[in-house]
Amino acid sequence: MRTSPGMTMVIDGGLPTGAFTDLITSHGDYIDLVKFGWGTALVTRDLDRKAGVLRDAAIGFYFGGTLFEHHLWTGRLDEYLDLVRRTGATHIEVSNGTIPLDQPGKAEHVRRMSQYRPVLSEVGYKDADRSARLTPAQWVEAMREDLDAGAFMVVTEARESGRSGIAQSDGHLRRDVLDAVIGNVDTERVMFEAPTKTLQVELITALGPDVNLGNIAAADVLGAETLRLGLRGDTLLHVATVPSGQSAGI
Amino acid sequence: MRTSPGMTMVIDGGLPTGAFTDLITSHGDYIDLVKFGWGTALVTRDLDRKAGVLRDAAIGFYFGGTLFEHHLWTGRLDEYLDLVRRTGATHIEVSNGTIPLDQPGKAEHVRRMSQYRPVLSEVGYKDADRSARLTPAQWVEAMREDLDAGAFMVVTEARESGRSGIAQSDGHLRRDVLDAVIGNVDTERVMFEAPTKTLQVELITALGPDVNLGNIAAADVLGAETLRLGLRGDTLLHVATVPSGQSAGI
Amino acid sequence: MRTSPGMTMVIDGGLPTGAFTDLITSHGDYIDLVKFGWGTALVTRDLDRKAGVLRDAAIGFYFGGTLFEHHLWTGRLDEYLDLVRRTGATHIEVSNGTIPLDQPGKAEHVRRMSQYRPVLSEVGYKDADRSARLTPAQWVEAMREDLDAGAFMVVTEARESGRSGIAQSDGHLRRDVLDAVIGNVDTERVMFEAPTKTLQVELITALGPDVNLGNIAAADVLGAETLRLGLRGDTLLHVATVPSGQSAGI
Question: Which end of chain A is more exposed for a tag (fewer CB within 10 A), N or C?
Fold first, then answer.
């Protein structure tokens, strides 16, 4: 059924193992990547079983950038890489959303981590005020720098709330940032965090059904797919097309 | 345990198959109808299994009005009716929440679709501003027209957010519309979409525990039932009664 | 993995039986108590099976204070105690969040109910305006009175929304109440209802990772645990420590 080549990354904020397996079994066709949100991996009893479910379904996975930051901040990156290897994580996320790591420092870690796995590099801060002070030009420059450093994709921060990073406090996209990104970065290499329907609709409307969407909640996997396909009111008139020469039967 | 004859319609926004089965097995006693929300049916891998679970539990089901609108808009109503027949859907929802179909045109489709299944006909638009411009008299007139056209029930739009249609942007009911409906339409034939606790409480308080409630989230099935029964703080003093001649032990 | 001695109480708002079992199996290590929210127990078909799952996992459980209030209000406390005995509930919650029961009257019920089970006694009202009128001194006095009456713990009301009781309508803690509680009550004997991440972060920041947290949603069990451990952006810099003599690798 799926026709869209746009990537869908689902965030797991701590599903029980049965629910996780049920999700992947039922909706795995619409999921390209799973992110074990922030540091949940360290308190997930059945992490190896979850990893196995994803391996069987040929779905990639990685750990939230906060786990990388936590290990960097506490001087234990070697333990982080051990975890990646042991679980078979397919990607690494590098970010500086919380700890005081500047952009050039982050790009350097993108370069280093790319030796081990394809890197998703996040741009934007978790703190709403700090993110709001980033100009469109700074967003573009950081994304280009990370891609030049070898990042597989760059990720625009929006948290789980959809009210920070590339999103405004009212939940809508920062259009100035979006326009700058569209004009200056290859959007096939950008994953837009879009945890809310508002953001999903605005991104699909602006970039088309193939936009890469991240931080999709487990409960919204089918919902996001229907938005891509014009099967929901919010995008029906944008995406669904009336066959030529028809009056649509109305 | 259930004493209320009021109907409860649950919206499935895309539950995995295991979770759906679990829901119906555990809480099926409190569910009269399931609506596969908007166009999710088309991206649900195990739709036939979900339909089977409902058949076994003697619970009716149908597809969201948006799926009807999508097929009407793209000139493929025959495919829509094929889907209804193949899955054994027990009802059809007719709506004009998104596409440019006027009220008389919708009533005509209510008439046609009633040949195939009992029809739930929705009144109100998904767009908040358009809905807000509908006067109470227009709501009543549309509901009567749809019932006259043969609708089994009419449904008052409130979306999944509870902030459009018969709901205001602040999440409360439009009292003017509710009062007009109560005064002019047989409310046993009205299904009020009530996806939030705020709306559920306001409707139960205004219409009593037997009001027909729709768009109840899977996670809220027991919650809505407790509201009907006065087993939650919001309705306890309205619904629960102190035996006469008792001081309630306080 | 868990190092925190702080209690975590999870509220079950009506999970299907399979989902409930999955939750306890996967995340039971991080759950100390389960509260069957408000009066959901009376409409839970498999209540005995849920109770059995908790017994096997050595997790305590009890019924929401509203169920106590409902039985008190309708003059049927004997039926309430029968339910406690039959299900093997390990605790009793006494509250006056909804019915007109004054503080001394509540303390008297704390005393009586303590004969049967350890009592969690709730302070604060479900109605936001009534709660807002309670002064910090009144919160402290009520908590002390309940503890003096034999309560095992006192619970600060915040509902499921986190916008009433000890929380303000904007979702943040009432700092005046929190400061008065910290200064005058043994916080090891206080369970703070904290159904939102905002409240969890503010409490962990103010009281440390061992604060007792209540009304944690099933979906947030791992999330709350990561906040305690500094594995989420919101608390990383507060809780996680850089080994001395290290530059944190940045």
Answer: N
